[in-house]
Specification:
The chain is of the alpha+beta class and 357 residues long. Helix content is 59%, strand content 15%. Helix 6 runs antiparallel to helix 10. The C terminus is likely disordered.
């Protein structure tokens, strides 16, 4: 890595960090004010607001990359540092290498945040909840999912063969060492083909088609708060259960494409600011780049919402805009850039090799 690459990379990382801290601080204050009306106490409101920060950072990551990159590169244009690099023969694609490395690090940090920070924070904020879940051959209502992973107040409706065959109610369930859920203090009401009814009681009863604990943790959270690996397992479980998985699959692919979208946002600023223009045109350029980037992010959100509703294909909803934007930016960076003209020398001024008396 050359010194120029390291310098530009650190500038972009610092700009994104400053913009991110500023926007998240504003969000934290607004969230505390909004939560205080519901929570009643400022301590509870502050807890809820702090726990929502990882998810907010994940949602705002592309916008933070856009404005952080512009905030880092705009001073370089004002001080003519980018102009000097272009005049020295550095192509825009060569200048983009440092910001691209910064985008790679930001993308990895975003994926780490979505995997290890967002789900625990969302579970802590949610607390104990009730849950309806479709298993392979049954519908399940879980009255309470504890923080320790234990289940309470379960109702299972066996729908094997397309008809209700049995209803099971259990006081609780525990995941044992053999990898199965054991229902505790269960009562099973069986409905046979002759419309007979048989009631049986069991201190322990095996829950055969139960999902693993990772799936239950994912089902409790909204899709935006599920980690990358858990989301992949959840999509596989929904498909095995013959449940519509469009929303979960769209969310999974959006998480995988987010590093590319972050890179496109940062390189958009590089491509726009490397164009040789007068210094007085800098504010207009920044406004144009920012407006174009925000418009692209709004289109991406709209496509993702349509994909989760099943109105668009997965590729169109998740990959079309990041890949198209990256292609356009790459073509712009690959175009030859006219070097900025050298300042005119006053008439009669000595050249560099002329003797000065």
């Amino acid at each position: 890595m050359s010194r120029v690459d390291r310098y530009l990379m650190l500038r972009v990382l610092l700009g994104c960090a400053l913009v991110g801290c500023g926007l998240l601080a504003v969000y934290l204050v607004l969230a505390m004010v909004a939560e205080s009306s519901d929570a009643g106490r400022w301590s509870d409101a502050a807890r809820e607001a702090v726990l929502s920060l990882p998810l907010t950072a994940q949602r705002l990551a592309p916008a933070l990359a856009l404005f952080g990159g512009l905030a880092a590169l705009a001073p370089l244009v004002r001080r003519n540092e980018l102009t000097a690099l272009l005049a020295a023969g550095c192509a825009p694609a060569r200048i983009a290498r440092g910001p691209l490395l910064a985008a790679l690090l930001l993308g990895l940090a975003g994926m780490a945040n979505s995997q290890w920070l967002v789900p625990p924070a969302a579970r802590s904020a949610a607390g104990e909840q009730a849950l309806w879940l479709r298993a392979q051959h049954s519908m399940v209502h879980i009255g309470r999912v504890g923080a320790n992973g234990q289940l309470a107040d379960l109702s299972l409706y066996d729908l094997e063969g397309g008809r209700l065959r049995a209803v099971v109610r259990a006081r609780g369930a525990r995941y044992d060492a053999s990898g199965h859920w054991q229902l505790q203090d269960a009562r099973r009401l069986a409905l046979d083909a002759g419309d007979g009814i048989r009631l049986s009681r069991h201190s322990r009863l095996l829950w055969r088609d139960a999902p693993p604990p990772q799936i239950l943790r994912s089902a409790l959270l909204e899709l935006n708060a599920v980690g990358l690996l858990d989301l992949a397992r959840y999509v596989a479980f929904l498909r095995a259960s013959q449940v519509n998985a469009d929303a979960a699959r769209t969310r999974l692919l959006r998480l995988l494409m987010q590093p590319l979208l972050i890179a496109a946002m940062i390189l958009l600023g590089v491509a726009g600011l490397c164009a040789p223009r007068p210094r007085a045109d800098q504010a207009r350029r920044l406004a144009l780049i920012g407006s174009f980037g925000i418009g692209a992010l709004l289109v991406d959100e709209t496509l993702a919402a349509l994909g989760q509703l099943g109105l668009l294909g997965t590729f169109t909803a998740t990959m079309l805009l990041p890949l198209t934007l990256l292609l356009l930016v790459a073509l712009r960076l690959a175009m030859p850039t006219r070097r900025p003209p050298s300042p005119a020398r006053p008439a009669g001024a000595p050249t560099r090799h002329a003797a000065v008396t």
